[in-house]
Design goal:
sensory transduction; 13 helices; two-stranded antiparallel sheet; mainly alpha; about 325 residues
Protein backbone atom coordinates (compact mmCIF):
# COMPACT_ATOMS: atom_id res chain seq x y z
CA UNK A 1 0.00 0.00 0.00
CA UNK A 2 1.33 3.44 -0.94
CA UNK A 3 1.97 5.66 2.10
CA UNK A 4 0.10 8.94 2.45
CA UNK A 5 2.46 11.49 4.00
CA UNK A 6 1.19 14.40 6.04
CA UNK A 7 3.09 16.74 3.74
CA UNK A 8 1.07 15.55 0.74
CA UNK A 9 -1.91 17.88 0.41
CA UNK A 10 -5.15 16.26 -0.69
CA UNK A 11 -6.51 17.65 -3.94
CA UNK A 12 -10.19 18.22 -4.75
CA UNK A 13 -9.76 19.21 -8.39
CA UNK A 14 -8.00 17.74 -11.42
CA UNK A 15 -6.51 19.39 -14.50
CA UNK A 16 -7.53 18.22 -17.95
CA UNK A 17 -5.45 18.82 -21.07
CA UNK A 18 -6.22 19.99 -24.58
CA UNK A 19 -3.59 19.41 -27.26
CA UNK A 20 -0.08 20.07 -25.85
CA UNK A 21 1.83 22.71 -27.75
CA UNK A 22 -1.28 24.05 -29.47
CA UNK A 23 -2.88 25.86 -26.55
CA UNK A 24 -2.73 29.15 -28.45
CA UNK A 25 -4.97 27.84 -31.23
CA UNK A 26 -7.46 25.90 -29.09
CA UNK A 27 -10.19 28.31 -30.15
CA UNK A 28 -9.63 27.36 -33.80
CA UNK A 29 -9.43 23.65 -33.00
CA UNK A 30 -12.80 24.02 -31.26
CA UNK A 31 -14.48 24.75 -34.63
CA UNK A 32 -14.05 21.26 -36.18
CA UNK A 33 -14.67 19.67 -32.77
CA UNK A 34 -17.97 21.55 -32.37
CA UNK A 35 -18.96 20.65 -35.93
CA UNK A 36 -18.25 16.96 -35.26
CA UNK A 37 -20.32 17.05 -32.08
CA UNK A 38 -23.15 18.90 -33.85
CA UNK A 39 -23.18 16.54 -36.84
CA UNK A 40 -23.02 13.48 -34.60
CA UNK A 41 -25.89 14.65 -32.38
CA UNK A 42 -28.05 15.69 -35.37
CA UNK A 43 -27.30 12.44 -37.21
CA UNK A 44 -28.21 10.20 -34.28
CA UNK A 45 -31.32 12.24 -33.49
CA UNK A 46 -32.33 11.90 -37.15
CA UNK A 47 -31.94 8.10 -36.95
CA UNK A 48 -34.10 8.02 -33.81
CA UNK A 49 -36.76 10.30 -35.33
CA UNK A 50 -37.01 8.47 -38.66
CA UNK A 51 -37.23 4.99 -37.12
CA UNK A 52 -39.73 6.23 -34.52
CA UNK A 53 -42.06 7.91 -37.05
CA UNK A 54 -41.86 5.43 -39.95
CA UNK A 55 -44.06 2.32 -39.49
CA UNK A 56 -42.19 0.54 -42.33
CA UNK A 57 -39.04 0.62 -40.17
CA UNK A 58 -40.72 -0.96 -37.14
CA UNK A 59 -39.11 -4.31 -37.91
CA UNK A 60 -36.69 -6.36 -35.79
CA UNK A 61 -33.66 -5.56 -37.97
CA UNK A 62 -34.09 -1.82 -37.32
CA UNK A 63 -34.71 -2.04 -33.57
CA UNK A 64 -31.00 -2.15 -32.77
CA UNK A 65 -30.21 1.12 -34.54
CA UNK A 66 -32.00 3.32 -31.96
CA UNK A 67 -29.99 1.54 -29.24
CA UNK A 68 -26.77 2.31 -31.09
CA UNK A 69 -27.88 5.92 -31.62
CA UNK A 70 -28.71 6.34 -27.92
CA UNK A 71 -25.32 5.00 -26.83
CA UNK A 72 -23.62 7.35 -29.33
CA UNK A 73 -25.61 10.30 -27.98
CA UNK A 74 -24.65 9.29 -24.46
CA UNK A 75 -20.96 9.24 -25.40
CA UNK A 76 -21.25 12.65 -27.06
CA UNK A 77 -23.05 14.34 -24.17
CA UNK A 78 -20.73 12.72 -21.59
CA UNK A 79 -17.58 14.29 -23.05
CA UNK A 80 -19.08 17.46 -24.55
CA UNK A 81 -18.96 19.71 -21.42
CA UNK A 82 -15.25 19.31 -20.70
CA UNK A 83 -14.19 19.34 -24.37
CA UNK A 84 -15.99 22.65 -24.95
CA UNK A 85 -14.68 24.17 -21.70
CA UNK A 86 -11.10 23.35 -22.70
CA UNK A 87 -11.12 24.32 -26.36
CA UNK A 88 -13.56 27.25 -26.21
CA UNK A 89 -12.81 28.80 -22.82
CA UNK A 90 -9.38 27.33 -21.97
CA UNK A 91 -10.77 26.08 -18.63
CA UNK A 92 -8.80 23.02 -17.60
CA UNK A 93 -9.93 22.50 -14.01
CA UNK A 94 -12.61 19.98 -13.03
CA UNK A 95 -13.76 18.96 -9.55
CA UNK A 96 -13.01 15.41 -8.41
CA UNK A 97 -16.72 14.58 -8.05
CA UNK A 98 -17.56 15.87 -11.53
CA UNK A 99 -14.60 13.94 -12.97
CA UNK A 100 -15.70 10.70 -11.32
CA UNK A 101 -19.27 11.22 -12.58
CA UNK A 102 -18.02 11.82 -16.12
CA UNK A 103 -15.86 8.72 -15.85
CA UNK A 104 -18.94 6.66 -14.97
CA UNK A 105 -21.02 7.94 -17.90
CA UNK A 106 -18.24 7.60 -20.48
CA UNK A 107 -17.44 4.02 -19.47
CA UNK A 108 -21.13 3.17 -19.10
CA UNK A 109 -22.07 4.30 -22.60
CA UNK A 110 -18.89 2.73 -24.01
CA UNK A 111 -19.91 -0.64 -22.55
CA UNK A 112 -23.45 -0.11 -23.80
CA UNK A 113 -22.25 0.51 -27.35
CA UNK A 114 -20.03 -2.56 -27.18
CA UNK A 115 -23.03 -4.67 -26.14
CA UNK A 116 -25.22 -3.22 -28.90
CA UNK A 117 -22.58 -3.99 -31.54
CA UNK A 118 -22.42 -7.55 -30.22
CA UNK A 119 -26.15 -8.18 -30.51
CA UNK A 120 -26.16 -6.52 -33.94
CA UNK A 121 -23.55 -9.05 -35.08
CA UNK A 122 -25.81 -11.83 -33.80
CA UNK A 123 -28.68 -10.25 -35.76
CA UNK A 124 -26.61 -10.28 -38.98
CA UNK A 125 -25.62 -13.91 -38.34
CA UNK A 126 -29.25 -15.02 -37.96
CA UNK A 127 -30.33 -12.99 -41.02
CA UNK A 128 -27.70 -14.65 -43.24
CA UNK A 129 -27.78 -18.15 -41.72
CA UNK A 130 -31.60 -18.48 -41.54
CA UNK A 131 -33.13 -15.74 -43.71
CA UNK A 132 -36.50 -17.53 -44.03
CA UNK A 133 -36.84 -17.97 -40.27
CA UNK A 134 -35.34 -14.60 -39.33
CA UNK A 135 -38.67 -12.95 -38.48
CA UNK A 136 -39.80 -15.90 -36.38
CA UNK A 137 -36.49 -16.19 -34.51
CA UNK A 138 -36.03 -12.48 -33.82
CA UNK A 139 -39.50 -11.16 -33.12
CA UNK A 140 -39.95 -7.54 -32.06
CA UNK A 141 -40.56 -8.44 -28.42
CA UNK A 142 -37.59 -10.82 -28.35
CA UNK A 143 -35.32 -8.22 -29.92
CA UNK A 144 -36.45 -5.65 -27.35
CA UNK A 145 -35.76 -7.99 -24.42
CA UNK A 146 -32.36 -9.06 -25.80
CA UNK A 147 -31.39 -5.49 -26.55
CA UNK A 148 -32.36 -4.17 -23.12
CA UNK A 149 -30.68 -7.08 -21.31
CA UNK A 150 -27.38 -6.71 -23.16
CA UNK A 151 -27.33 -2.93 -23.48
CA UNK A 152 -28.08 -2.25 -19.83
CA UNK A 153 -25.69 -4.86 -18.46
CA UNK A 154 -23.23 -2.00 -18.67
CA UNK A 155 -24.86 -0.24 -15.71
CA UNK A 156 -24.09 -2.84 -13.00
CA UNK A 157 -20.75 -3.54 -14.71
CA UNK A 158 -19.42 0.02 -14.44
CA UNK A 159 -21.37 1.04 -11.31
CA UNK A 160 -18.49 0.11 -8.93
CA UNK A 161 -16.05 2.38 -10.83
CA UNK A 162 -17.09 5.72 -9.26
CA UNK A 163 -17.18 4.18 -5.79
CA UNK A 164 -13.70 2.66 -6.12
CA UNK A 165 -12.40 5.97 -7.51
CA UNK A 166 -14.10 7.96 -4.74
CA UNK A 167 -12.43 5.97 -1.96
CA UNK A 168 -8.92 6.77 -3.26
CA UNK A 169 -6.76 9.55 -1.83
CA UNK A 170 -5.46 12.11 -4.32
CA UNK A 171 -2.47 14.17 -3.28
CA UNK A 172 0.02 16.30 -5.20
CA UNK A 173 -0.53 14.92 -8.70
CA UNK A 174 -3.65 16.18 -10.44
CA UNK A 175 -2.79 16.46 -14.15
CA UNK A 176 -4.81 14.04 -16.30
CA UNK A 177 -3.87 12.86 -19.81
CA UNK A 178 -7.02 13.74 -21.75
CA UNK A 179 -9.75 16.33 -22.28
CA UNK A 180 -12.14 14.17 -20.24
CA UNK A 181 -11.95 11.73 -17.33
CA UNK A 182 -11.21 8.03 -17.82
CA UNK A 183 -10.95 5.51 -15.00
CA UNK A 184 -7.51 4.24 -15.98
CA UNK A 185 -6.25 7.84 -16.07
CA UNK A 186 -7.78 9.01 -12.77
CA UNK A 187 -6.59 6.04 -10.71
CA UNK A 188 -2.95 6.73 -11.64
CA UNK A 189 -3.11 10.02 -9.72
CA UNK A 190 -3.95 8.27 -6.44
CA UNK A 191 -1.41 8.29 -3.61
CA UNK A 192 -3.25 5.47 -1.81
CA UNK A 193 -3.59 1.81 -2.72
CA UNK A 194 -5.30 1.55 -6.13
CA UNK A 195 -5.03 -2.20 -6.67
CA UNK A 196 -8.80 -2.69 -6.46
CA UNK A 197 -9.27 -0.05 -9.16
CA UNK A 198 -6.60 -1.63 -11.33
CA UNK A 199 -7.99 -5.16 -11.18
CA UNK A 200 -11.63 -4.14 -11.52
CA UNK A 201 -10.77 -1.82 -14.42
CA UNK A 202 -8.94 -4.74 -16.03
CA UNK A 203 -12.03 -6.91 -15.53
CA UNK A 204 -14.25 -4.30 -17.24
CA UNK A 205 -11.76 -4.05 -20.12
CA UNK A 206 -11.73 -7.85 -20.49
CA UNK A 207 -15.54 -7.87 -20.63
CA UNK A 208 -15.38 -5.46 -23.55
CA UNK A 209 -12.66 -7.57 -25.17
CA UNK A 210 -14.95 -10.59 -24.83
CA UNK A 211 -17.62 -8.66 -26.76
CA UNK A 212 -15.15 -8.01 -29.58
CA UNK A 213 -14.07 -11.68 -29.59
CA UNK A 214 -17.70 -12.85 -29.80
CA UNK A 215 -18.28 -10.42 -32.68
CA UNK A 216 -15.27 -11.97 -34.45
CA UNK A 217 -16.73 -15.44 -33.88
CA UNK A 218 -20.07 -14.40 -35.39
CA UNK A 219 -18.27 -12.97 -38.42
CA UNK A 220 -16.35 -16.22 -38.87
CA UNK A 221 -19.70 -18.05 -38.96
CA UNK A 222 -21.09 -15.42 -41.34
CA UNK A 223 -18.15 -15.85 -43.73
CA UNK A 224 -18.46 -19.62 -43.54
CA UNK A 225 -22.16 -19.37 -44.43
CA UNK A 226 -21.56 -16.85 -47.23
CA UNK A 227 -18.77 -18.91 -48.80
CA UNK A 228 -21.21 -21.82 -48.99
CA UNK A 229 -23.57 -19.80 -51.22
CA UNK A 230 -23.25 -20.89 -54.85
CA UNK A 231 -24.52 -17.73 -56.52
CA UNK A 232 -21.95 -14.94 -56.77
CA UNK A 233 -24.70 -12.30 -56.74
CA UNK A 234 -26.25 -13.71 -53.55
CA UNK A 235 -22.76 -13.95 -52.05
CA UNK A 236 -22.17 -10.21 -52.58
CA UNK A 237 -25.68 -9.31 -51.44
CA UNK A 238 -25.21 -11.20 -48.17
CA UNK A 239 -21.84 -9.55 -47.47
CA UNK A 240 -23.23 -6.12 -48.35
CA UNK A 241 -25.73 -6.37 -45.48
CA UNK A 242 -22.77 -6.54 -43.06
CA UNK A 243 -20.75 -3.59 -44.41
CA UNK A 244 -22.30 -0.92 -42.16
CA UNK A 245 -22.00 -3.03 -39.03
CA UNK A 246 -18.43 -4.16 -39.74
CA UNK A 247 -17.36 -0.53 -40.30
CA UNK A 248 -19.10 0.51 -37.06
CA UNK A 249 -17.24 -2.27 -35.22
CA UNK A 250 -13.87 -1.15 -36.61
CA UNK A 251 -14.30 2.57 -35.86
CA UNK A 252 -15.38 1.72 -32.30
CA UNK A 253 -12.97 -1.04 -31.28
CA UNK A 254 -9.75 0.02 -33.06
CA UNK A 255 -9.28 3.30 -31.13
CA UNK A 256 -10.70 1.73 -27.96
CA UNK A 257 -8.27 -1.19 -27.92
CA UNK A 258 -5.39 1.02 -29.07
CA UNK A 259 -6.05 3.43 -26.19
CA UNK A 260 -6.24 0.58 -23.67
CA UNK A 261 -2.84 -0.71 -24.85
CA UNK A 262 -1.35 2.80 -24.68
CA UNK A 263 -2.48 3.21 -21.07
CA UNK A 264 -0.86 -0.12 -20.17
CA UNK A 265 2.43 0.94 -21.83
CA UNK A 266 2.60 4.69 -21.14
CA UNK A 267 6.40 4.96 -21.14
CA UNK A 268 6.62 3.82 -24.75
CA UNK A 269 3.78 5.99 -26.11
CA UNK A 270 3.60 9.59 -27.28
CA UNK A 271 1.26 11.70 -25.07
CA UNK A 272 0.02 13.51 -28.18
CA UNK A 273 -0.83 10.19 -29.85
CA UNK A 274 -2.78 9.10 -26.74
CA UNK A 275 -4.76 12.35 -26.74
CA UNK A 276 -5.63 12.11 -30.44
CA UNK A 277 -6.63 8.43 -30.19
CA UNK A 278 -8.81 9.18 -27.14
CA UNK A 279 -10.50 12.11 -28.89
CA UNK A 280 -11.10 9.96 -31.97
CA UNK A 281 -12.60 7.23 -29.77
CA UNK A 282 -15.28 9.63 -28.48
CA UNK A 283 -15.80 11.80 -31.57
CA UNK A 284 -15.65 9.47 -34.57
CA UNK A 285 -18.19 6.67 -33.79
CA UNK A 286 -21.11 9.07 -32.97
CA UNK A 287 -20.27 11.03 -36.12
CA UNK A 288 -19.78 8.12 -38.52
CA UNK A 289 -22.42 5.59 -37.43
CA UNK A 290 -25.45 7.61 -38.68
CA UNK A 291 -23.61 8.32 -41.95
CA UNK A 292 -22.74 4.65 -42.45
CA UNK A 293 -26.28 3.44 -41.85
CA UNK A 294 -27.87 6.18 -43.95
CA UNK A 295 -25.52 5.54 -46.87
CA UNK A 296 -25.54 1.73 -46.81
CA UNK A 297 -29.13 1.02 -45.71
CA UNK A 298 -31.45 1.91 -48.58
CA UNK A 299 -34.68 1.92 -46.54
CA UNK A 300 -33.26 4.37 -44.00
CA UNK A 301 -31.64 6.53 -46.67
CA UNK A 302 -34.92 6.81 -48.60
CA UNK A 303 -36.93 7.70 -45.50
CA UNK A 304 -34.39 10.30 -44.37
CA UNK A 305 -34.46 11.95 -47.81
CA UNK A 306 -38.27 11.90 -47.76
CA UNK A 307 -38.31 13.63 -44.37
CA UNK A 308 -35.85 16.27 -45.59
CA UNK A 309 -37.92 16.87 -48.73
CA UNK A 310 -41.08 17.23 -46.66
CA UNK A 311 -39.36 19.73 -44.37
CA UNK A 312 -38.18 21.68 -47.42
CA UNK A 313 -41.68 21.81 -48.88
CA UNK A 314 -43.19 22.93 -45.58
CA UNK A 315 -40.64 25.72 -45.24
CA UNK A 316 -41.66 27.03 -48.66
Amino acid sequence: MLPLNASEAAVSTFLLVGIPGLEGVHIWISIPICLMYLMGILGNCTILFVIRTEPSLHEPMYHFLPMLALSDLGLSFSSLPTMLRIFLFNTMEISADACIAQEFFIHGFTEMESSVLLIMSFDRFVAIRNPLRYSSILTSSRVLHIGLAFAFKSIPLVLPLPFTSKRLKYCNKRLLSHSFCLHQDVMKLACSDNRVNFYYGLFVALCMMSDSMLISVFYVFILKTVLGIASHGEWLKALNTCVSHSCAVLIFYVPNITLAIMHRLPKHMSPLAMILIADAFLLVPPLMNPILYCVKTQQIRVKVLEKLENLGLKSK
